[in-house]
Amino acid sequence: MEQESNITQPVVSAASTGKPIIEVKNLQKGFDNVPVLRNLSLQLFENENLVVLGKSGSGKSVLIKCMVRLLMADSGSIHIFGKNVQEMNDRELAELRVKIGFLFQSGALYDSMTIKENLEFPLIRIKKHLSRKEIDEKIEEALKNVGLSDTINKMPSQLSGGMRKRASLARTIVVDPMIMLYDEPTTGLDPVTSDEISALINNVKKQYNTSSIIITHDIECAKATGDRVIMLNQGEVYLEGTIDQFEQSPDKLLQSFFKVRQTSSHIEQ
Fold first, then answer.
1. Is the pLDDT of residue 8 over 60?
2. How many other C-beta atoms lie within 10 A of the C-beta of residue 37?
3. Of 51, 72, 146, 262, which cross-links 222 as Cys (Cβ 3.0–4.6 Å)?
4. Where are the domains of the chain?
5. Which has the closest alpha carbon to 145: 177, 180, 169?
């Protein structure tokens, strides 16, 4: 694959000075003999926001589903906290998933539960030692941190799309995850709400000391949140760098991607 950029070398950010907490090596995954991920390798370091950019079909969402073994990779390895995810038994996998917050593109709230009950459900299941008072305090804290204190007794249907996304984020952080995986966190949102979600991603990193992988095709989200950025193309790591390096790069594929996304952003407004 011909590349015209000099930003393919690993970028050392303030976070990426220690041992990686996620290390993916030579990952391959396909469906019906059609490859989606091709020999993909990357690392996530402690207290880092790593943005993974790419157009639809580049394998972004498949990547993070493989990380938590919602999908089983065909080959390669995924180590999280030094342990191989593909070799974990059911108990080990369940213990790992407790440490990982997964914000789905859809938000995935339970429509039949109030916002409080949506947050209460994972707390009771995961933090079994907490008292009723401690559960209530953690729910109130999580909702406050995403600016939704006054929605605690509302139903998801009573919230706007952006508020539902924030409520989903509150439900994810209420159990104190160490790693956050964001799957297209700003998709379907207006520009102002998208900016609010990006700000919340940074706030979660600061307040909860999380390390995050942010899957997106939203350039503005990448600019706002990314300490380091990887671009996928046809299931491979095509380029790695900072968002500033990406913007200044003469690489034709990268610049066409930026141009298309920025044009789309203007249309949405």
1. no
2. 26
3. 51
4. 1-99+178-197+212-269, 108-176
5. 169
Enter the CATH code of domain 1-99+178-197+212-269: 3.40.50.300
Neighbours of 4 (CB within 10 A): 11
Q: Specify whether the CB–CB gap between 50 and 227 falls below 8 A.
A: yes
Q: Which of 116, 110, 122 has the alpha carbon at shortest distance from 148? A: 116
Please give the torsion angle defined by the CA atoms of residues 123, 120, 139 and 165, in that order, rounded to the nearest 10 degrees.
100
Mean per-residue pLDDT over the chain, rounded: 87
DSSP symbols for 60-77? HHHHHHHHTTSS--SEEE
User: For residue range 205-244, what is the model confidence (pLDDT) as tens digits?
Assistant: 999 999 999 999 888 999 999 999 999 988 999 999 998 8
Beta strands in 133-224 (DSSP E): 179-183, 211-216
Q: Quote the pTM value.
A: 0.86
Q: How many beta carbons lie within 10 A of that of residue 65, not counting itself? A: 17
